[in-house]
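Technical note accompanying the year-one report. For the benefit of new consortium partners, we illustrate the data format agreed upon in the data management plan: each record pairs a sequence with a structure-token string. No post-processing was applied to the example shown here.
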Amino acid sequence: MAKLWVMFFTALLLVSTMNFYAVIREPDLIDMDEIHEYPRETVKIKGVLTSFVVDPYGEQADRIDLQVREVDGHSALEVRWFVDRDVDIPPIGTIITVEGEVTEWNGRIWLSSNGYGAIQCADADCDGIDYTAMQLVEVAMNPEAFSNMSVKVDGYLSEPLEPDVTYHSLSLMDNPSYGNADHLLYMQIEGRVMDWVEAGSHVEISGWLQYDQRSLRWRLLVQATAVEVLNNGSTVDLSWELEPYTLTYEVGKKVRIDGTATESSNGWWLTGDAPTDRLCLLPSPADLEEGIENTTQTWSGRLVWSTDEATICLKRDGYDSSANNPAGQFGDDVTAMLDVAENPFAFIGQNYTFEGWVTDPISPDYDKGYVGDGADYYSRTTKLRLHLIGEHAEYIESGQPIRFNATVIWSESEGRVILEARSWTLGQAPSPTTLNWGDGYNSWKWDIGKLVILNGEAVMDDDGNQWIQRSGSEEQVCLLGDGTESSQQESIGAPIDWTGRLSTAEDSFGNTMQFCIDIR
């Protein structure tokens, strides 16, 4: 019996010793890039304090959010420090050590620290680093001091900068991840960059800071040549466990995701383990040559909005969008519209052959419109006025390719260049746009005048007016037809796709504007 008591007390002593060690032991010092390997563990990191905000949500909470960057690198980490708000915070640029628990939620990761001793200077003198550019928090604390001045600011890009696009609207952040950023400075960048600059890239940007009275916010006006890339952003890892809507935040970025490639009647898709795990895939020519059907691997590429598929897709490197939409491939010996726009008076009074895309529908009873050098707003760099001399029996649709011979003229009354075309050849018109119920005016307004598709049931009211009604709902859109559509609907029974031109009409009784689908 005595031996049993000895064993019991020995075991109790060992357990107590282990618990005591667990409490007093020093947390492991890890690299910031390895933090995702320590979920729910207490660790220590070392870095440079670049930003902080006290009581971030204005709730009078004892919490301070900080941004800590690698001393000799570009990675940054969000720290949530639960401590009295009047605590002395080390100066910006100070090298500090941080102890805390690694916390992860919905794809975001941060360090949760508690108490005064969780954050300390790395040395007794609290030495700092002299930056060549200001940190965002310095501008945020006193923007009036830099108003209408040229400033150089250090931060991370919220969105990628795309080559051959002359205007970008985005934010400069104090963390590579939008969800972990504490400060955002709105930017307008004009001019072209030579290569892709990825979202999350560490940059130094020189620009003109001013207050925008219209939008009630500060903004930085920047020329593309004033963007200095210190480190290009990394690829974003996607997970099937995230909510599908979160993909919209990653459009335009380089991403990778695990999945299996499958081909169906409506294109290629990536699938995960669950039946609902599905992402549109735009394979590269190399993918198609190798044969990727039922291939399971980590797929990388750029996340884009595909107008052909009307959904978010993973665009593989080398994907050729013209394979699905060969618009504009008419031939050689054409004059670039950009050349005319840059030096119009060198072309005035002469005839040239042009190729482009009609930007908005041109009805048969109208002879004027616009033509651009890109199929859509995002790919277009030049748009010029087009005057068609002659008749055209049908609508020329928005996005329809056109090759034409035109005289370049200068309109003194309008103060602009006009391409006066007397002969033209049209390419295949794009497919109608599918409208989604519930998107509302802000979404539908861009398709006014265009051919669209809307699924619903045709009904007729007591006054003989026809409507397309959303199945199982009171939502409806005016239907302009020959009056027999509601009868056709009764014979079909189920909701059908109605294809027509989206227009607007005034409701004289309610004094409101309403959408109509004209299928005549």
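Partners are asked to follow this layout when depositing records. The two ends are 100 Å apart (CA to CA).
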